[in-house]
Amino acid sequence: xxxxxxxxxxxxxxxxxxxxxxxxxxxxxxxxxxxxxxxxxxxxxxxxxxxxxxxxxxxxxxxxxxxxxxxxxxxxxxxxxxxxxxxxxxxxxxxxxxxxxxxxxxxxxxxxxxxxxxxxxxxxxxxxxxxxxxxxxxxxxxxxxxxxxxxxxxxxxxxxxxxxxxxxxxxxxxxxxxxxxxxxxxxxxxxxxxxxxxxxxxxxxxxxxxxxxxxxxxxxxxxxxxxxxxxxxxxxxxxxxxxxxxxxxxxxxxxxxxxxxxxxxxxxxxxxxxxxxxxxxxxxxxxxxxxxxxxxxxxxxxxxxxxxxxxxxxxxxxxxxxxxxxxxxxxxxxxxxxxxxxxxxxxxxxxxxxxxxxxxxxxxxx
Length: 366
Fold this sequence. Notes:
This protein is α/β, with parallel strands linked by helices. The chain has twelve helices and eleven strands. Helix 4 (109-123) runs parallel beside helix 10 (308-323). It starts with a strand and ends with a helix.
């Protein structure tokens, strides 16, 4: 568990601890040299039922540990810990291109994906709200953010397969749905004049893939730290390669600038194909590299699912990701509380082991 400090210079105060321990042993040595006169009776009374010699060192040891914790806490340490999520909005971006008809996953990719998505929704706690976006040549919101699981399941059952795979458009629409206050311009992504053209955005071609920088946001926003947005995340499932729309890597950079994590799922096998569709049979392969890059850019995770069971396991794992979240939490209060507990324990042991007074004396004389 990595730890950071808001006041790292205060760690130098820990050098005082060896001085305190050294002073304690110096006092013990000095005490041994002192000559104290006892009468026979007083010596007997003081030494009857005397605790074991090691006990006298336990309370000071607890005090020293408490001091060490307080000095360490003065540096204000922070650690990334896993805590239950208070609330979250999750946007599911689902590929509904024709390649989802492939039957390499029984009974077909689309049927297996719908079934796994329905089970995933049932596993999520009520405090997680869901929105659903589908994408093929273009993207659309098939269900706005809601807590109603029945409406979400009905939206998944309504999926209509279409031509094309605009992964970037689906990601941008999911991002706009999750963070509407960002005012993302979706015109170039959702209303592409040439939706079925292949192009290389790195060469500046205008057919099918338009740079996100071609039309800036309505209002310029400063970039947020990657993965800093705690109010929600995106799960993007695709089974094919982008054929149109904006570059998904550019869309991922936009998500990273808004601090949003994008978990990606590659669904299907390398040998997947659609038999006899419109007189043709063609192979469909997952663009794993692009999906991995999208997840990496947004500091999320990529999952590979080659079967219906694999996809169920992926969604099962994702459900735990969204019920528990990692936060940078300051540990000062926790360390101070532990120090206080040690001090109280030291005082309690001292009072119990070394209690003196008339009651003890009378019990010794009885």
